Amino acid sequence: YYNKDSLVYHNGAIVKALGTSTQLYSQTLHYGNGIFEGIRAYKTTFGTKIFKARAHYKRLKKGAEVMDIPFNYSVEELIKITYELLKQNNYEDAYIRPLITTGADMSLKTSDESVLTIQCWKWGKYMGDKLLRVKTSKFQRPNPKSCYVDAKVTGHYINSILSANEAKKAGYDEALLLDMNENVAESSGANVFMQKGNILITPKVGHIMPGITRKVVVDLCKEEGIKVEERDFRLQELKTADSAFFTGTAAEVVGLKSLDDYQFPLDWNKSLGKKLMHLYKQEVLCERKELVKV
Ligand code: PMP
Question: Probe ligand 1: pick from 187, 191, 192, max atoms within 8 Å of CB?
Answer without folding.
Answer: 191
